[in-house]
Amino acid sequence: GLCREDARFFDRLAHLAFLPTAACTLARPWELYDPSIPELEALVGPGGGSELYPSAAFCKPELIATLVHLGLRTALDRPAVLKVARSLSAAVGVCDAGRPEESQLVARGRALLAALATHARALGLLQPAASMDAALAEATDAFVSELRALSWVPVMLESPDPHLPWAAGGPALAAPRETCLERTAPLASYGMRVCSEEVPSE
């Protein structure tokens, strides 16, 4: 009856790229995020993230409720993390050192690091590989591999210790696979960048 028709209509609508984004493109509802997600504002930076949100005309509470029914994302997830990390990696490659834009990128990288620490379990980063099925293990491996290769981790630009081996130069963000923690810097600082943030050991 009517309920079944409504269900089919909503299902078809959810898979149509009809929703204008703040970047003036069209997207499917499930490709975008609720702009009220607290972490996203810090991750995308001032005036950023236009490709992640519906246009302002669709951000009224009553419309957001309908869009959530159509699949609008309401929590930080792996696709959002990768979108932010990709944008940081691309931006830092063309940003001149010392410019205000660089400090904004560092703040976003710091926010991403904090979000990953806070949501590690929800993002599946703490789940043992042995407990995953093959598809989930493959998806997790792909997520972690790409995240490790992108330049988004804030790093020190000057040595914290004059006696520490140090390779000068480089941008303010680096890839995790090229970065070590300050507590392990004496063993690795000459060949790797040193993370400027405190990172939980677990």
Question: Care to describe what's here?
Answer:
The protein is 41% helix and 6% strand. The protein has seven helices and six strands. Strand 1 and strand 2 (26-27) form a beta hairpin. The chain has a two-stranded antiparallel ribbon with strand order 1-2. Strands 3-4 form a two-stranded antiparallel ribbon. The chain is mainly alpha-helical and 202 residues long.
Shape: globular
List how many beta strands DSSP finds: 6
Distance between the termini: 53 Å
What portion of residues belong to β-strands?
5-15%
User: Helical element count?
Assistant: 7
Radius of gyration: 20 Å
Taken in chain order, the helices and strands follow as HEEHHHHHEEEHE
Which regions are unreliable across 5 or more consecutive residues at pLDDT < 50?
none
Largest beta sheet: strand ordering: 1-2
Secondary-structure-derived class: mainly alpha
The amount of helix comes to: 40-55%
Short description:
With 202 residues, the protein is mostly helical. The chain contains 7 helices and 6 strands. α7 links the parallel β5 and β6.
List the helices and strands and how they pair.
Layout: H1 2-14, E1 19-20, E2 26-27, H2 38-44, H3 61-69, H4 78-92, H5 100-118, H6 134-149, E3 153-154, E4 173-174, E5 179-180, H7 185-188, E6 193-194
Parallel strand pairs: 5-6
Antiparallel strand pairs: 1-2, 3-4
Helix pairs in contact: 2-5, 4-5
Give a quick set of tags describing it.
202 residues, mainly alpha, two-stranded antiparallel ribbon, 41% helix
